[in-house]
């Protein structure tokens, strides 16, 4: 086990057939069973595509408050829309996080059956009056979803499953693209307040793009905080609680936090890949045995995500509720 964050090249998985997939899967599996984080290069997402998302995020967050609040996150927006400064507490025991955000989910039509049924965590996306915003965000969302599905072929391979094992569990996933803006660290902050409080992510895997401001810290197995520096043209990936549960804790969901940088703002764009709402999260084949019985009962993907989201927003009154 290592307390460093490895850099893994995904290119062999795309270009070297079964041998490349096996080699990449081994590297990813080692990281997932160890520190739970890894950098990903060779991912195939053009830098220009990411830069356009960051530029649009800055445009949105610099907009007047009345424009942003027209798309405000609420109990009824299905984990979509604008979350104002201090609107969430990733560590509910501490002061609210010093950041603002914007959530985008799977883009569904008004007549989609899940929309008409008001299914949990399904809703129409909220789009601000910012030219080009919707097109740029949906293009990036699609790229991240494709990359996340590709990563799951490596997870399945490393776990001894068919490479396509997760395909039917990620058809219409509860995946969320988030735009985040952290102000520079103020002279005075509430006790225990951070940009993002100590937490683990909720889903299967997170694909994070950041600017070069720094601030992300990962907690090692020894309880020390390890800085995750900016590396150009990489994503920072980490395992979430849902995949840790699926693997019976073989893969590790690692606590992390964000410290507001001193003297400058920080922007980041994470993509959280959760499974389909009706996917049953139960101990995977080969992840339990006589000496390691299954630790968790089966649960639907939407029920699990709701159980994790609501405590995050309780302080601000923005719990999602069972029906949107």
UniProtKB/TrEMBL annotation:
UniProt KW keywords: Dioxygenase, Iron, Metal-binding, Oxidoreductase
Ranges annotated as spanning the membrane: none
Keyword Iron: yes
Ranges of residues in domain Fe2OG dioxygenase: 173-275
A single GO molecular function term of this UniProt record: metal ion binding
Residue runs in coiled coils: none
Source taxon at top rank: Bacteria
Protein family according to the UniProt entry: Belongs to the iron/ascorbate-dependent oxidoreductase family.
Protein name: Isopenicillin N synthase-like dioxygenase
